[in-house]
Amino acid sequence: MIEQLSVALLGANGRMGAEAVKAIDAAADLTLVAALGRNDSLESLVSSGAQIVVDLTVPESTEANVRFAVEHGMHAVVGTTGWDAGRLARLEELLADRPGVGVLIAPNFALGSVLASAFAAKASKYFESVEIIELHHPDKVDAPSGTAVRTAQLISAERTAAGVPSSPDATTTELEGARGSDVEGVRVHSVRLSGLVAHQEVLLGGPGEQLTIRHDSFDRASFMPGVLLGIRNVAAHPGLTVGLDGYLDLGL
Ligand SMILES: NC(=O)C1=CN([C@@H]2O[C@H](COP(=O)(O)OP(=O)(O)OC[C@H]3O[C@@H](n4cnc5c(N)ncnc54)[C@H](O)[C@@H]3O)[C@@H](O)[C@H]2O)C=CC1
Ligand SMILES: O=C(O)C1=N[C@H](C(=O)O)C[C@H](O)C1
After folding, report:
1. Which residue in 4, 125, 173, 249 is a FRET match for 26, CA 20 to 30 A apart?
2. What value of ipTM does the predicted structure carry?
3. Is 122 labeled as catalytic in the residue annotation?
């Protein structure tokens, strides 16, 4: 008899949610006890007996959803974007009162993407210049992507710790937006194009050379091994974990 984990899914009718329903249903150790859409009450999570709540909703809903889960002693695995520093700080404060509860905020569940961001961060201190191009489907509501923000933060931390100066840039006149957005000192450019799913390039430049670290999600199936890994591990990681790399042994 395989021990079962009871899982509730928020955003079950969305692009990611529909894929996650299939992945959870196909997992022998997971039971989907609730699948909620936009107009469903969070109260039904309590009666469902869910141990773990997976949030794949929209940036404006995710904080309240996760708060509800934590306040009711449920672990949360969160793929939704929009977790800025203020939201993370409020969540950490809440978790301090719930010592056994774990929350994973995963900007990207694709293992290749997590690796690409980690490799890019490690490489970034060896290059003068670094910029990020993220490319997504045109139905995406937020820009830049959560993955690009996270990658820029990892890069910025590595470069700051190594004392690497800002990327050189002589721009003095600029049509607004032409140089992308500045995320912790790293320029991020967002492309929205029909036919795409989720893609990112980190461009690293030095005298006479360029290294490009690119990851492509061609299908949302790419995110599912990471979603399942998050569900299976979140209870063993109490407190807040940002990034699926927190559950992996990247050895970097
Ligand atoms: N971490 C990762 O690997 C990935 C993260 N994402 C992120 O996940 C989120 C969802 O992406 P998509 O599925 O493409 O969006 P989507 O718009 O297709 O789906 C979101 C769904 O959530 C529903 N919803 C909104 N508020 C809700 C609430 N309070 N309770 C329950 N359902 C609610 C909407 O009605 C919609 O059906 C976005 O923030 C996206 O950036 C997307 C792909 C991968
Ligand atoms: O909206 C999407 O599609 C995606 N959102 C996440 C992000 O903003 O990084 C993850 C992935 O890029 C797909």
Report:
1. 249
2. 0.99
3. no
